[in-house]
Amino acid sequence: MSNERETLMKALEFHGHRCWASVAGVRAGLAALRVLNVQRAGGRQLQAIVEIGEDHGGTCWGDGVQYATGCTLGKANIEKTNWGKLAVTVVERATNRAVRISYKPTLQKRIGESAFMVKRGQGMEPDEIPEAEQMELVELIWNAPEADVLAIGEVFRFEREWFPEVMGFVPCAACHELTARAYLRVVGEKHVCIPCSGYAR
Questions:
Q1: Which tens digit of pLDDT belongs to each residue from 113-149?
Q2: Tens-digit pLDDT profile for residues 29-80
Q3: pTM
Q4: What are 79's strand-pairing partners?
Q5: Are residues 53 and 82 in the same domain?
Q6: Measuring CA to CA, how many Å separate 184 from each of 73, 75, 156, 162, 199?
Q7: Residue 93's domain spans which residues?
Q8: ∠ at Cα 12 (10, 17), nearest 5°?
């Protein structure tokens, strides 16, 4: 548990402030590792599919999941469904074993009544709220029984073929900026980046 607490604190530092959704995301990520009996991803051993969307107060969940699982934007092994839900599916790529974990609303009344959330509702930025009030919610979510915070599904087979990374960069023939090979487009006889090609994708 001490190692998990260290993971939590590092995740909060990475996230930039202390909030309930990022803590719940850390717990979900750690639970997924435990259920699948896998280690945090140092490479692309795992894939995380987070169901958060854009511009809602729970997107912090994604950073918690990201830090706990090691599935990151830079490794291209995390993706969003944009469904606006606090849920994640974590997949072990080598076996396609997966588990979906979602957040339970059990503690939402207490969260909503907290000093942190009252101030957030008044327009204060999270990192402007006193640390003690941030930590009140951290401890609420971190110390609650797992069954009050998370719904953990059964392990199942995730159907997807995993493609290898395409290595190498080539300068765009128009703007001359390095572009990953898979993202070059052919315009006439030139290989150009997507913005220079005029294509949307």
A1: 999 999 999 999 998 999 999 999 999 999 999 999 9
A2: 999 999 999 999 999 999 999 999 887 778 999 999 999 999 999 999 999 9
A3: 0.88
A4: 49
A5: yes
A6: 21, 20, 36, 21, 11
A7: 2-157
A8: 145
